[in-house]
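Notes from the pairing session

We agreed to fold both candidates in a single pass and log them together. This is the raw record for the first candidate, unedited. Please don't reformat it; downstream parsing expects exactly this layout.

Candidate A
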Amino acid sequence: MPQETPLMAVTGTTLVLASPAPSPAGRPAPVRPSAAARLLGPYARLFAVPGARGFTAGNLLARLPMGMFGISAVLMIAGQRGSYALAGAVTATGMAATAVVAPWTARLVDRYGQARTAVPATVIAVLGSLSLVLCVRTQAPAWTLFASYAATATTPNIGGLSRARWTHLLPRSAHHTAMSFEQAADELCFMLGPVLAAFLCTAAFPEAGTLTGAVLLLTGMLVFTAHRATEPPPGGARRSGGGRSPLRALAPLLGLFLATGLVFGSMEVTSVAHLSALGLGGASGPVLALQAAGSCAAGLLYGARRPRSLRTCLLALAGAMALPWAAAATGSLAALAAALLLAGMATAPVMVTAMGLVQSRTPGGRLNEGLTLAVTAILAGIAAGSATAGLAVDGWGTGTAYLLPAAAALTALLIGSATPRPGR
């Protein structure tokens, strides 16, 4: 047998010869895990938690309609009433109602529990959707459309409900992976939802998207809430003395989420207009989906790695959001597609890290409310960004309008840099 070469080491000024420690007979040498194993390992441990797979399946079913309802309502109303202005006004009213109602719904969830609150709230929202279909179908007065769609504002923040369960079930060391998975799930549903809605409304009948979304929402919520063993205990705010509102504790972060929403809203509208100007029309969907796909993939990768600071993530976002503007100036569709993919990849780490800060700063027993306030700030930013980008596209053209998401990302960086760190 060949002799093993001695190992040499230096201790102080002395050279020491040492034989390698013999490995136990018959035991194979340790194998370094592959890259795939390192990526999937944290998620395998995540779903090894009893009940996690069940409530996640329900969560995904209920979350998919969140990307369906808006475009389904627009296509249904515009198709039956012949007015995109009316359709846009109805959906805008629903978003405004959600901004007001959602935090109150989340507060009730924290106080009385997920199942006791989320199921009745979902039923009210589904009835609102069915009422909208009926009013559109029967040519009811326009005000009934606004009232019906406003009723859907009781839809619970299903992403917040799921994040609250992970927080309850897992040790703090595993929260980063769970929040990364939730962010990837958000992006996946908002990427697939509009595609499914557009297909149903055009290939079947105008009301198909709204009806399918309502069925998925109710079914998913019933499956989700059926897993009672994983539900956080209700009444935490009263037991822990956490009656103070999370609004004050989260105020600096809400400004950050507002700026991030501005990034999303302005990027989407500008990209739609730019791709239409390039002549893509209905074929622009796959290009637009690249941003969400990039965020979904980056979210999963980020969850398997060590978390970064919020400032580092925001620096990457600010740099990435300048790429679409530079790509648009070249007139190359391939360059724009690559820029949108990279821009999307920069958003997930920001959202995961910022949501982690929301968890740590929200008063005890008010987590659902805190998470919903963050989502509400994002929705407000999306609405403002969409409106501002529309004006910029009409006034300056799509090339200049791409400066809006870059400016919003820079604003988010400035707000994030000024946000006090935990413990300060």
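Candidate B (folded immediately after A)
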Amino acid sequence: MASTTGSTGTTGTACPHCGWPDDAEPFQVVSRHGTAAGSTVWTRCGCGSLQVRVADGGGVRIVSRSRPADAPCGRAGR
């Protein structure tokens, strides 16, 4: 997948877990799915955070992202 544009979804322009810019390489493409409006691409940041990127006529933006797999969930007692 090519690098993203400056357009972002509900997240910022960098990973909140490691600070790596969203439009920078490397990120790993996990899967890619065509949609009527463009495509949905699941990627994994270098820190392990899973991201959902939507590519359409408005560019590419991250619409959802998880914590890295080894990050604590922040809830006591788990």
